[in-house]
Specification:
Layout (H helix, E strand, L loop, with lengths): L9 H6 L3 H33 L9 H31 L2 H18 L8 H24 L1 H4 L5 H23 L12 H25 L7 H9 L2 H18 L1 H30 L5 H29 L1 H21 L3 H28 L6 H30 L2 H19 L6 H8 L2
Helix pairs in contact: 2-3, 2-5, 2-7, 2-8, 2-11, 3-5, 3-10, 3-15, 4-5, 4-8, 5-15, 7-12, 7-14, 11-14, 11-15, 11-16, 12-13, 12-14, 13-14, 13-16, 15-16
Length: about 450
């Protein structure tokens, strides 16, 4: 696979006109609004400084509670993911699950409008439910990738989705940017909460094409016969048990998922605390933080397509190794230099690396996934990312709270990155899949 030359040719360009592919990519355009506004940029800062401020709670107590809320939501999503994935595969209802979890997520984002000072428990519960359903919707979104691609263009399509996602994040921030001028002053709080409403509307509007045009595979005769005898849930648990036994025999898949879990902790920490770190350690304003994140989207949009092509050119594993090495350099720079301009430059580089690593990871997972078990296997892929969302933010929150130093907390990412890098080097692509690719 790694030695097969793949050109950015007419076949890839035709994918841009494929309605199913475009609808799938547009869902990334839609859901990134939640990721960027609620998980990464605006709500975390709002949570730390408005919902759990230092004058009410201890210093950095908000960091700890934000880590707890993130971890709790991810832990619950990780438990539900394989069950929902197995049921969706056997019932051919991935699109239905995608729609249901998206609608619930949007509803609870709307409820964030009613958060504020003194609503810590309420805000945590609302965010936890919103994030659970967001994470589950992402699992079903990812599980459509093997159906929409073959092994010669999986990297390109994966990269296309990320490119649309970063464009969606940029426009979502651009949409709410006018409401950030007043910062965290009390008179500006209603405008900040209005940004949550706009984010929910943005999410649901641009998710609509995927609801209409993504299609589940039809039932086969064996599925119909099984469903006449047993319930979806019972069959789902049975298939999940069989899948887990199969996966335990697949050493390369287990190695990859272990590596993915480890280095994903670094991304979870960045997603949960980048804006908080910029605000509380570097004293950036909300507008500066939003501008930085918007600025970081331009090179990522371009690099997403490029790295998707590069995955098809040199192989997903090689791309992951390259980006993880670069990631270690980024973390060292962020924690060594206390200048805003350096933070800006390094953050943009980190954004490029995050997207590139995830493109390659999703592509490699697709390559290791058996046909007709996409949602089940991608549920385990989702678990790797989700448990990293438990461990990473909690480690950062605890270190920040007890050391009162966010730089020390951020250095914990190096342990995760280096461990993941070591394990990914021993992952091997099955020979039968290489032969399969050569026929495409």
């Amino acid at each position: 696979m790694a030695n097969k030359p793949i050109r950015f040719n007419l076949k890839n360009l035709k994918l841009l006109l494929n309605l199913s592919v475009l609808s799938w990519a547009l869902y990334d355009f839609a859901n990134t609004s939640f990721a960027i506004v609620i998980i990464t940029v605006i709500f975390p800062v709002f949570f730390i400084n408005v919902i759990a401020p230092e004058h009410i709670y201890e210093k950095n107590f908000g960091d700890l509670m934000w880590g707890v809320a993130s971890a709790a939501s991810i832990l619950i999503a990780a438990f539900l993911a394989p069950i929902c994935g197995a049921v969706a595969d056997i019932s051919r209802s991935k699109r239905r699950f995608l729609i249901i979890f998206t609608l619930i997520c949007v509803l609870f984002v709307l409820l964030l409008f009613f958060t504020g000072s003194g609503t810590l428990v309420y805000a945590m519960v609302i965010f936890i439910i919103a994030n659970i359903t967001y994470q589950l919707s992402m699992m079903f979104y990812n599980s459509f990738l093997p159906e929409l691609s073959d092994k010669s263009n999986v990297g390109f399509i994966s990269g296309l989705g990320f490119a649309f996602g970063y464009m969606g994040g940029f426009f979502a921030l651009l949409m709410i940017y006018p409401f950030l001028g007043g910062g965290l002053e009390s008179e500006n709080i209603p405008y900040l909460k209005l940004s949550f409403i706009l984010t929910a509307l943005y999410f649901i509007i641009f998710a609509m094409p995927s609801f209409l045009f993504l299609k589940d595979k039809p039932f086969n005769i064996d599925d119909k016969t099984s469903l006449q005898r047993e319930s979806y849930l019972k069959i789902g648990f049975k298939r999940l048990s069989l899948t887990f036994k199969e996966m335990k025999r697949n050493k390369n898949l287990i190695r990859f998922l272990t590596s993915f879990f480890l280095f994903s902790n670094a991304f979870s920490i960045l997603a949960a605390y980048a804006a908080i770190y910029g605000r509380n350690t570097l004293n950036l304003s909300l507008k500066e933080i939003a501008f930085l994140f918007m600025l970081g989207h331009f090179p990522v949009i371009i690099s997403s397509v490029f790295f998707g092509w590069l995955v098809d050119k040199i192989g997903a594993k090689s791309v992951i190794i390259i980006t993880l090495i670069a990631w270690c350099t980024v973390i060292i720079l962020i924690t060594s230099v206390n200048l805003k301009i350096i933070f800006y430059i390094v953050y943009i580089l980190a954004s490029v690396l995050t997207g590139s690593t995830l493109i390659a990871s999703r592509s490699l997972m697709s390559f290791l996934t058996p046909y007709d078990k996409e949602a089940e296997y991608f549920s385990f892929y989702a678990i790797g990312g989700k448990f990293s969302g438990v461990l990473g933010p909690v480690v950062f929150g605890l270190l920040s709270y007890f050391t009162k130093n966010q730089k020390i907390a951020l250095l914990s990412t190096l342990v995760f990155l280096i461990s993941g890098l070591i394990i990914i080097t021993v992952v091997r692509v099955p020979k039968e899949r290489i032969k399969e690719t050569s026929k495409i």
